[in-house]
């Protein structure tokens, strides 16, 4: 409990350091924010290890999976911060990770699996987690793209002094993330059909159908961009729609079973 609260405070501190000075002409103290985030990620990893790997198997409850995804996204975004413009997204990512840790502390739950004796299942789950994390980051860039578009239309002077990156650069990163995420999602679906007995069995059908719908949205979005030059609002809307479908596939029924009905 204590380490979880410390981890939350570190994430909150890392986010606050950026937010409080984001529009300042000197910019935020990124070194301090990175230091706090690194310590938070290390504690978060320790918490994940103790929460997931239990004596009976692997506890892949909804909140543990969400915490793992949050950790993957936070780690990726922190590493990307040294080469890609994502300062405005870091407070969002850190805040999400902090909130998930708090929820996991105060809403304990268990969903025990035995992945260690099922390497094929481990491959499928790993691909699914990385696909969701990558497309989750793509969603953040789509929201950043929408925000930059809005600020440019309003011609806000503060935009010139903020840490916002160039519009075209954000758009380029978004499509790279969408491409990689869609490929991972494709591999995840293929591995599911290959390694799992029945992807349309009771309790699994909605996940499969929603995941396929999300895959179709992302695939059409990418095809439209590379074939017809789609960009702007249609791309942002499609990315949000695909992410919502994928979130419902991954967490929808488990949220009802593990949180609402528990």
Q: Mean pLDDT, rounded to whole units?
A: 88
- Approximate helicity band: over 70%
Main sheet attributes: strand count, strand direction, barrel closure: 3 strands, antiparallel
Q: What distance lies between the first and last C-alpha atoms, to the nearest angstrom?
A: 21 Å
Based on Cα principal axes, name the global outline. flat
* Radius of gyration, whole Å: 19 Å
Please indicate the percent range of residues in DSSP E strands (runs of 2 or more). under 5%
Number of strands: 3
Backbone structural class = mainly alpha
Q: How many domains comprise the coordinates?
A: 2
What's the helix count?
8
Outline the fold blueprint.
Elements: H1 2-20, H2 30-52, E1 53-54, E2 57-59, H3 62-80, H4 90-106, E3 112-113, H5 119-154, H6 167-195, H7 205-228, H8 233-260
Antiparallel strand pairs: 1-2, 2-3
Kindly summarize this structure in a few lines.
The chain is an all-alpha fold and 262 residues long.
Model description:
The chain has 262 residues and is mainly α. The chain folds into 2 domains: 1-113; 117-262, no CATH class. Helix content is 74%, strand content 3%. It is built from 8 helices and 3 strands; from the N terminus they run H-H-E-E-H-H-E-H-H-H-H. It has helices at residues 2-20, 30-52, 62-80, 90-106, 119-154, 167-195, 205-228, 233-260, and strands spanning 53-54, 57-59, 112-113. Strands 1-2-3 form a 3-stranded antiparallel β-sheet. Strand 1 and strand 2 form a beta hairpin. Helix 1 (2-20) runs antiparallel to helix 4, helix 5 (119-154) packs antiparallel against helix 6 (167-195) and helix 6 (167-195) runs antiparallel to helix 7 (205-228). The longest helix is centred in the middle third of the chain and has 36 residues, at 119-154. It is flat.
